[in-house]
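Ops channel
N.P.: pipeline sanity check, posting one input/output pair.
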């Protein structure tokens, strides 16, 4: 079992920044690929970013590329999502997810991930 706890969400003005954190426990962190997804009101949950087990490879949705950065700290068993130049359309509940498979194919599918956090709300005002 893997427990994931997100934090760092909040209300920010357009153009501002936030950093989300996701603390993982219950399994060796270096064996987990980690991802961030988000779900806006009335919409399906969508992929945002993913980072490999060793942190050397990352993937981003086109909508956030160049603005968001995913990173991980193995000493703290934590994955981060640095969000800059935020837009109102970034408003959503953001979820952290863990993938135990070691396979990176279809990394943008929810089904790739085995464990999920409870989510943290990000609201960007215009």
């Amino acid at each position: 079992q893997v427990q994931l706890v997100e934090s760092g969400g909040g209300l920010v003005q357009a153009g501002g920044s936030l950093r989300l954190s996701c603390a993982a426990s219950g399994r060796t962190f270096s064996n987990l690929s980690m991802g961030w997804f988000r779900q806006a009101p009335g919409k399906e949950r969508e992929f945002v970013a993913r980072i490999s087990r060793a942190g050397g490879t990352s993937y981003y949705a086109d909508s956030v590329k160049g603005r968001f950065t995913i990173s991980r700290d193995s000493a703290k068993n934590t994955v981060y999502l640095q969000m800059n130049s935020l837009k109102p359309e970034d408003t959503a509940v953001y979820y952290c997810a863990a993938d135990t498979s070691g396979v990176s194919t279809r990394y943008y599918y929810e089904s790739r991930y085995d464990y999920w956090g409870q989510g943290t709300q990000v609201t960007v005002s215009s």
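N.P.: looks fine end to end. Residues 6 and 22 are 4 Å apart (CA to CA).
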